[in-house]
Design a protein that fits this description.
This protein is α+β, with helices and mostly antiparallel strands. It has one domain. 23% of the residues lie in helices and 28% in strands. Strands 3, 4, 5, 6, 7, 8, 9, 10 and 11 form a 9-stranded mixed sheet that branches. Strands 12, 13, 14 and 15 form a 4-stranded antiparallel sheet that branches. A hairpin with a 5-residue loop joins strand 13 and strand 14. The chain is elongated, with a radius of gyration of 30 Å. It starts with a strand and ends with a strand.
Length: 342
Amino acid sequence: MNARTTNGVAGFSLIEVVIAAALLAMMIFAVSTLSVSGMEAQDYSKRLSRATELNQEILDRIRLELVSSVRTFGNDTEGNANIGVFDLTGAPTPLPGSRFATIATTGQVQQDTVSSQITGNALFFTKLAWSDRIQCHSGAMYMVDVYRWHLYYLTAAAGGPTSGSATGLDLVRVVSEPLIDATGIDRITDPTDLEEVLEHFHTSSPDANGVTHPQAIVVWRRGADPAISKTLRQIDDSDWSLSDSPLSGRPNPWRVLRDETDGLLEYRQHSVATNFARSALGVGRYSVVSTSGSGFPHGFEVQVVGPSSARQVLIHLVVAGTQRRGQLAWSDMRVVVDGREL
């Protein structure tokens, strides 16, 4: 009788069944592996797109603000004096070792060397907030500019930055209260008109175009040392005059108060890349990287070059995803903003 038949019915031997089962298992494993790999690739693509979108969004925001900048502060006496009176109480703590760019009035955007370092990892500038046209009862019309300070800096997030981790930093944006341009105020020689203008700013009354702006009560002399009298003055609503000293309710000595504070990345599951990210991410593209202390510069680099009449501000930002699964998603972008400063 044939070994593969029983009672005339064809069948398979035990060995053939085992081999078929093994082949089927291998095919199922191969198909499932391809399916998992495809899902992981799709997930990585989504995370990569999200990192790119966030990076572009932040750079666009900074670029649009810098377009209206009238003064960029650098790592010098003026810049450090002004940041010294910017009240950051309650805001995220700046990363130790943060510094502004050294303004290079000649030259161009370039990579630093040990002997020539101009790159910073914080950005501090004055932006034109609005211009007010005030019609006084005398018939005189006055145009006065109002500014805000804008500050971008790194802060530690989620226990970082730490050795071996590409994440652990948030980028913080802080905007000051409105600051009235002292030049526009001091050119008003008529005492009655001056009182009307100061009352207008303090009470937020509509301007000559019928537009209402936020209250502004501090007058600032742009470019002057804040430690010098009359650099900062406050509107006294008891007689509509200007006080050289802070009035009741404001910090004394002078502090410029913050109006807005935004953490730009941490709550969206992303981080500014740290110095410990792999070199392919582009961290430290322009500066001389330091890992001492809290490190410098990490994935936020700033250069300010050119004379005030033709200034260029480079912003280089590397964003990395904080999700722990799969391959690290990241985005490396930069933008150069042209501007003219007053």
